Every structure is written in structure tokens, then in C-alpha cells.
Amino acid sequence: MSASILSQWREHLQTARRRSPHTVRAYVATAQRLTERLALDDWQGVAALSTRDLRGQLAARRADGLGNASAARELSALKAFVTYAREQVGADPGTAPRLRGPRIKKGIPRPVTPDEATNLVEAVAESGGEDWIGLRDAAVMLLMYGAGMRIAEALSLKASDLPLGQTLVVTGKGRKQRVVPLLPIVREAVARYAEACPHLLTGDSALFRGTKGGPLSQGMVQKAMARARKALGLPDTATPHALRHSFATHLLGSGADLRSLQELLGHASLGSTQIYTQVDAAKMLEAYRSAHPREKD
User: Fold this and answer.
1) Residues in contact with 200: Cβ distance below 8 Å, sequence separation at least 6, in sequence order
2) Which of 101, 115, 119, 196 is the most exposed place for a label (fewest CB within 10 A)?
């Protein structure tokens, strides 16, 4: 019976909540650990869980070495699961257990400089082995740095999106759509890859392909970035996602307003975008300390 409620939970997350595949996997895994530990096999049992039960589940996970950030995500998944269970049995979802998660210190993104971004794209293009693979990886990187796309958004593009125009409709988290402008250098990079790609790019098939013709995975992009990062002597923080951070930071430093940046990045709340003001302020302070004569005394 437990498998049945987990299947229903997965279906709810995929269809009704439209969660990403990664989130679905994480939420279902969390629910499975809970139901197995407490031997729950129906919605009534899950709906009856108390704050003490959830605290005990988190304590058990903490004993496994779960950190603060992971514990906060786990708690969010547990509360969503119990709330859904209460809806299934006709109970008031608002009376679901209330439990505060651990405090998470929000880290400031570590963007790369414009020169580093350019060098990374060039290094990726040169380290692909086959020419078309280098062109492919460079095109993906430029979509993140030149258009602020998430890696999953870039890899979700279809062959039918070709040829790219001056703007592109991107479907981000929560199936939320936004329009992003595409610079000529980004469009040209994608066009060069598409022309060189040995696999047939038609219809709703994936635009970016692996060596055997299947959809390109995030892991392959991350490996390409790691090789380029190592070759250039850059820190481990120079990840594919850092290119998106760089897109945001450089735009903000050039005078873009937060609301426009929020739209370009596809953030649901302005609070998620405001972290880039901290990045810009940190860079200004660093420049001040390195240039001000009193700082050198």
C-alpha cells in the first residue's frame, strides 16, 4: 500500500504541482524514508503525523550526517507530503504540523569575470575532442552567460527552436515562461553547433545531443566545464551555474534595474534577485580597498 501512496504523491508532484524531475525525485525519496521508518501504508497514517513525528524523522536524518541546507529541504518535503495527506482524508491542511527548519545562511554567488567567462568558453570549445562537441559545449555555455539561462533550460531547447531569433521564450522553474533576448554571438554559436552536429535535428527532438545522439546531460556539461576550469587554473566555484551568476552581476554592474533582472532570470520573487546587489557591493568594496590610497598606508 505504501508504494501506492508514493505513486500517487509522485503523480501529484508531476502533474498538479509541475515540479522539476529533480524535485520530484527528492520529494518522493523523502516520503519513502518517512513511510518506511514509521511503517505507514495509507494516507490516514501520514495525515495523523504530529510535529513530534516530523522532528523525530529529521533527527534520524541528522544522525546520518544531514547538513542544515539539506535538512531544510527535507523538512519542506515532509511538510508538503503531510499537507497533501490531510487533503486526501478530508482534514484541514492548515492544521498540519508546524516545525521550523534550521537557519540557512544565504551564500553570495561567486561569478566569474568577463575575461574568465570568455576564456572558459574558448577552452571548452577547444577541449571537446571532436569539433562539433566543442561547438556544442561552447553554445551551451554562451546561453548561460549571454542569456542568463539555467543549465536545465538550455538543455531543454528543441530542434524546432531553430533558427534562434533575437528573443527566445524559455520555460523555467514551475513551468513559468519568460522572454530572453539573445545576443548575435549566442545565436551564431548555436547555429555553428547545429550545422556541425552529425545527428539529425528535427521537430521536438533535443537540440543539444550527446555523442551517441541522445539528449545531452547536465553531467557532461559540468565535466566539460571542469576540464576548462582546471586548464585555466580557476577555482571550483567556476561552475556552469556561475556563468548565470556572472550574467546577472555584470548586467547589474552596467546599470540594469532589479525588476528587469528579475524578469530576465525568471525569479519568482525579487528577494532572489536582490542577492546580486550584495555581489556588486562586495566587488565595489574590493575595488575601493585596492585603489584607495589610505588603504595602502
Assistant:
1) none
2) 115
Ranges in the chain annotated CATH 1.10.443.10: 114-289
Per-residue pLDDT of 118-170, as tens digits, reads: 888 888 888 767 889 989 999 998 888 888 888 888 999 999 999 998 888 87
User: Looking at the chain, how many residues does it have?
Assistant: 297
Grid coordinates standing for 244? 548565470
| Residues in Cβ contact with 27 at an 8 Å cutoff, skipping those fewer than 6 apart | 9, 13, 19, 77, 80, 81
Q: What's the CA gap between 12 and 8, in Å, rounded? A: 6
- When pLDDT is averaged across residues 262-273 and rounded to a whole number, the result is 51
- Neighbouring C-beta atoms of residue 49, cutoff 10 Å: 21
Question: Would you put residue 174 in left (φ > 0), alpha (ψ -120 to 50) or beta?
Answer: left
Superfamily of domain 114-289: Intergrase catalytic core (1.10.443.10)
CA dist 97 → 42, 52, 242 (Å): 18, 8, 37
CATH number of 2-95: 1.10.150, 3.40.50, 3.30.1490, 1.10.238? 1.10.150
Asked if the bond preceding 163 is cis, omega within 30° of 0, the reply is yes
